[in-house]
């Protein structure tokens, strides 16, 4: 890309039926094992051979007792104490491309930057985004905290001047006074901006016909950039959100105000920006371990600054995934650019655990397509994770927890327990956030297949039952 002059929440109701339920699970058919809710999960119910549930069978009432016990109402008889819970909150760390090429126009005639602002505005004000936490930063950042836009040289400090005027000779260098121009020339030309890319400064329409392309007419300038500005490759510059994490819809006003003050300018330091995004996300996860945190990286260009190696950049997303943070990628490109852009952005998305990048085609309705991409990410990222509360009496017995899904039509399914995320397969299931043998679980997490199934049924409910031995696959 040309840079500067050189370039439902699935309506799942979570019911946590938690329990100090020793009395209700102490029937003879449970065998002679321990019924102490604080007991050893590995020894509980061992005398009866345990409960083996056929996931394709009759739900709770298809209990199979290896010790010869009969049907006694299954898990419904075990869940005596209930507590209502809710899905784990979602936080989205967002890194937005505000490089100079965001001044390029889309098929609708809007600048890419305007398309991004419109789509993001719709997303943050969508009732379906309510409750999501959002933190926001932009790239490129500039050295020495230089602003990314200016309307007067005083705003630039040592990185000035602000590029607003030019000498009236053939060279047309930018200037602030006649002394900046060659002998005989004056600093008398008020610069404009090329219609097709607002960062290109121009004196006449002819200045907008460059080797990079035809950028239309020379229009009055909205704002400019500091002449001495240099894009930063310093990762800490990108690691703190400009808009601190806050929950929607309350955070919407701050996001809208921030977008209004930014001005596309500079190159594309992808590596520094992506690493900053992952640092933002990890800091949020450490501050709020009860949240699920994901990164969203929006760009309209391939790397043109800092480390430009795509394998190295993809490894940043891979490192974040190891820390429990998935990275979603949105590319905003003309259709002619997609063959080159998509494979590179797919490298990042795949390494970040999200498969492939979303590509917004600027030759179509880019604003709508970008909103669709953000909405798809929201739907995919909304966690299939549910808090595991303490029972009203006693402590959790991690060997006596089961997860049931009741569809909108009343059908019930029992998800099998698996040891960890790596054990998930096409059959689905659930696992704890940490192994009970070595830690204290705080969440119940569904495997991807089971997660997809509940998201497909907006009227469904999840019940987490404590008190009966973990169901296993038949």
From TrEMBL:
Domain named VWFA: residues: 261-364
Low complexity composition-biased segments: 23-43
Alphabetical list of InterPro entries matching this protein: VWF_A (IPR002035), vWFA_dom_sf (IPR036465)
Domain of life: Bacteria
UniProt cross-references to PROSITE patterns, sorted A to Z: PROKAR_LIPOPROTEIN
Region Disordered: start-end pairs: 23-80
Biased composition (Gly residues): 46-60
Name of the featured protein: VWA domain-containing protein
Organism: Pendulispora albinea
High-level lineage: Bacteria, Pseudomonadati, Myxococcota, Myxococcia, Myxococcales
């Amino acid at each position: 890309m040309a840079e500067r002059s050189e370039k439902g929440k699935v309506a799942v109701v979570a019911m946590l039926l938690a329990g100090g339920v020793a009395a209700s699970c102490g029937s003879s058919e449970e065998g002679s094992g321990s019924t102490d809710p604080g007991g050893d999960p590995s020894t509980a119910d061992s005398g009866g051979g345990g409960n083996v549930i056929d996931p394709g069978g009759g739900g709770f009432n298809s209990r199979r007792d290896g010790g010869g016990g009969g049907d006694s109402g299954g898990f419904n008889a075990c869940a005596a104490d209930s507590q209502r819970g809710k899905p784990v909150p979602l936080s989205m760390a967002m890194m937005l491309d505000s490089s100079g090429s965001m001044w390029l126009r889309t098929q609708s005639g809007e600048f890419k930057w305007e398309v991004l602002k419109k789509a993001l505005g719709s997303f943050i004000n969508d009732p379906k985004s309510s409750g999501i936490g959002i933190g926001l930063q932009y790239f490129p950042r500039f050295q020495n905290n230089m602003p990314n836009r200016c309307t007067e040289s005083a705003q630039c400090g040592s990185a000035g001047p602000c590029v607003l005027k030019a000498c009236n000779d053939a060279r047309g260098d930018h200037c602030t006074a006649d002394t900046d121009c060659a002998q005989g020339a004056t600093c008398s030309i008020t610069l404009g901006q090329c219609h097709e890319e607002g960062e290109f400064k121009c004196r006449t329409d002819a200045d907008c016909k460059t080797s990079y392309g035809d950028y239309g007419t020379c229009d009055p300038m909205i704002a400019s950039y500091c002449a001495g500005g240099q894009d930063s490759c310093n990762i800490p510059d990108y690691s703190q959100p400009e808009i601190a994490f806050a929950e929607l819809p309350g955070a919407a006003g701050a996001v809208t105000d921030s977008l209004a003050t930014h001005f596309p300018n500079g190159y594309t330091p992808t590596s520094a920006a992506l690493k900053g995004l992952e640092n933002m996300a990890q800091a949020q996860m450490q501050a709020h371990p009860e949240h699920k945190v994901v990164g969203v990286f929006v760009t309209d260009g391939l790397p043109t600054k800092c480390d430009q190696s795509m394998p190295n950049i993809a490894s940043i997303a891979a490192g974040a995934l190891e820390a429990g943070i998935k990275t979603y990628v949105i590319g905003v490109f003309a259709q002619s650019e997609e063959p080159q852009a998509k494979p590179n952005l797919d490298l990042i998305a795949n390494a970040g655990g999200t498969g492939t990048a979303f590509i917004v085609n600027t030759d179509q309705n880019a604003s709508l397509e970008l909103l669709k991409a953000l909405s798809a990410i929201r739907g995919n990222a909304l966690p299939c994770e549910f808090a595991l509360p303490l029972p009203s009496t006693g402590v959790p017995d991690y060997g006596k927890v089961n997860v049931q899904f009741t569809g909108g039509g009343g059908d019930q399914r029992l998800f099998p327990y698996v040891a960890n995320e790596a054990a998930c397969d096409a059959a689905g299931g659930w696992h704890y956030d940490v192994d009970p043998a070595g830690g204290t679980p705080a969440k119940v997490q569904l495997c991807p297949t089971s997660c997809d199934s509940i998201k497909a049924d907006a009227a469904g409910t999840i019940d987490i039952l404590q008190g009966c031995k973990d169901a296993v696959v038949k």
